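Q: A reviewer asked whether we had any structural model of the full assembly, not just the individual parts. We don't, so I'm hoping you can provide one. Inputs are below.
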Amino acid sequence: MASSSSSSSCSSSSEKKITLKSSDGEALNVEKNVALEFEPAKGFLEDNSEEADDEAIVVPLPNVSAAVLSELIPYVKQRLELSAKPVQKKLIKAFDDQFTRHLSDDKLGELMLAANYLGVNYLLDVLCDVTADRIKNKSVEYVREFLGIQNDFTPEEEAELRAQCPWAFEGVDQD
Amino acid sequence: MEKPEAEQEETNWSEAAEDLVEAGNTEAAISLLESTISKLEKIQQSQPTKESLNLQLASALTNLANLYSSNGFSLKSDHLLSRAFQIRDAAANIAKKDSKETSKDTARNSSSTDVKSFGNDKLPQDGSSDDDWEAMADRDPDELLSSQGLPEVSKLSLEDTGVKVQAPKRRGRGTFSYKKNELYSDWQDDKSIVEDAEVDDDSCLGSESKTELRHSNYGTRHVLVLADFSPSTRTTDLEKLFEDFRDRGVSIRWINDTTALAVFRTPAIALEARNHIQLPFKVRILDEDDIILASVSPRDLEPPRQRPQTSARTAQRLIAQSMGLKLPTTFGSKELKNQEEARRNRIQTRQKLRDDAWALDILSRLPITALVRTKCVCRTWQALAQDPRLPIIYHARASTRNPCLILHYDSPIQNKLRFVSINGDNPDQDGSRVRRIDARVNSIMAEYQVVGSCNGLLCVSDALYFNPIIVCNPFAGSYLELAKATQYAQEELAFGFGCNSSTMEYKVVRIVFNFNTYRSLRDRGRPRKSDVEVLTVGIDHTWRYLGPVPWRLNPGASEALLNGSLHWVTMRYKNNPGPRLRIMSFDLAEEDFGEIGLPDCGSLSVCNFHLVVLRGCLSAVHCLDDKGMEIWIMKEYKVRESWSKDYIIGMYLPASLRENARPHVEMLKKSGLGRGASQVVCDWKNGEILLEYANGALVSYNPENEELKDLVIFDPPKWFCSIVHVESLFLVEAILGIGA
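A: Here is a predicted structure for the entire assembly that you could use as a starting point for your response.
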């Protein structure tokens, strides 16, 4: 459904394909309007706007892997279609929920880094929400694991910090 | 000369400005700099070439620009900076003369080997001109200017300003042996970078063999021989003589201590120079068969070339390309370089800000407990959790989420505060655990009442004596004790706490009803009056008496804070004029009372009527005996006709109240905690309305399907009074704008 509507609605502009090159060297073809959602690509395309042939342009995205890009592109594409139509916010929210629900913690982190790098703010917004949701009732240890952070406090320091506001450490969910 | 004096001046104002900035008085520093600049500009108009003055002006402009940019006026600062650059640029040309002189002196003193090695150093650059451009781009602008650094660089900047002949000047005639040819070959190599490389390579390779050819190529008529001048004459002296011809190209080539050649571009110019300039020594036009020719390399006879106009541009283009940026149209390479640096810095700070913002974003979405916990995750997160931006973001986001509830309850020993943040969307789930708050309140007083909550600040007063009163942020653990108020033997107090949003001043209002005044028989029939006192938190040191008001309020806290006004319901008393029960408002900005028309909802009493804010409107809740409650909403503030009965909630008994025997409601009321059997607490973002039943159960009401649902909260106190509160990270001092 998504592909059919895209080809019919924005035929002329989206037919122009841009090649994005991921950090692992893979080239992905995307519609120009999707590529324009990524800030580095947008800047790159503007800088090279005198090039007549868009097809020839290869936009390097050295901070994003092909695996992440291939998740991002369909999302951005569908999200663009959704926001082009006068749809309710609920629909967009449902779409976002559906997108994020099955993301693993690792994937979530990767996507967040990519969305930050690419400046896709609406996605970053959603991802931040999901992340906050996932860690908000968890213990400190769980959060460390979740974010892959090393504990750099000494046991004494940590004990002192915890003693400052003991109420915050009561009744957290089981990891 | 005047220089030391000028420098003295400079240090004076720059030090004064620095002192001012350090003292935090940026405004004064700015005005000082501005006056300095205008003063300097005036002097500069009379002496436009005075170098120290120009530099001073430039540095004053730069300082001012920095101050502006630190104050956030980036446009102004950019403008000033570019002016400073222009002046520096111009000053640098003049400075060149000076530095040239000094460098010449040093060259004169230095040994010939030094000079030689200097020349040799330059030679390898022949083939690697591209690298040199890059190296140059990485240099500091000041370094670029300095003629001590790279000779070709100094030439470059000279190019920019259109001065053609100064390049070789930096060499003293010194003690080098002319025939060794190093210096001049190096000069040629330098040239090759800027000029057409092919021609010069050619000339480098075959310079010796082509000697004859070259002589005939250029002839000798364009060369003037300057002879028999004083040995102390310097290149500059000679050049000064030919100043008028500078534009048309002239270079000085030394033969020995008392002989030099002035090479012009054409014989005509040479002739003109000879005729026009009075020279204090012998001058003649070089002949084809002059003996000097034998000791002169043919290269030296090459007329000074008019550099191609494009070469500076080309240089910039090369630099720009290697740095991967677009070339602006009218900037010199120095500015270009600076711009690029600024751009890089901007990008870096933006990236840093963005990375932080991203982490802060997550933090700002966490409930306050989780946020406090993240401090223990690692040092980075601890730092992030204390980022000064976080309270602001957190506060801004607070308007998009449900407020938390502070549960005020009485334990056997003392009053306590707990809080619960209930997620409106799925209230049965996370967050609905009741948690302790480590409010300092408990260490100050044992029995207290909550006067009000506003923007994350909680105002609490002693329950028995109404002193002390404190304002605190229970989550930041900071509090402020307010000035003591006058105490009467038998008083009844209505309180109000709120914020005047236009001035962001927080005020506490006390409306004191003194029983003693009406004790005697004679006074019993008199209309009831109360005294009003107000205190602006963090500003007033004493309570201000606003005068008496002709009514008595329902004691306790203000029921609704809306539109910068506090709202109460008055107690009924038959001798007071007007309707028996009135809604009074107190404007926190104007500090005066107003009255709001009642909805048409039948017989009212303080016990069955209370105010609340729903959907951003003043709302009145009328509890009907055994029939539930009606909720009236005042759609337009202070427009009596806009009251409309929007919700009718049927009688309901929450499950938790059915089983357990509960303390008598009236008892709670007396302790200042309770307001009635059932009441409306607040509305949620999803449109549901939160109700509190008999100080012991929370129920959510869905207006769409009129369903009532018991809220499960873990660990609730047996009975409590709930206060709507916004979670905030601000310290009390920060919100009030005092202290820290």
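A: Points you may want to mention in the reply: Residues 140-169 of chain A form one domain. The interface with chain B takes residues 47, 112, 116, 124-125, 128-129, 131-133, 135-140, 143-144, 147, 149-153, 158, 161-162, 165-173 of chain A (CB under 8 Å).
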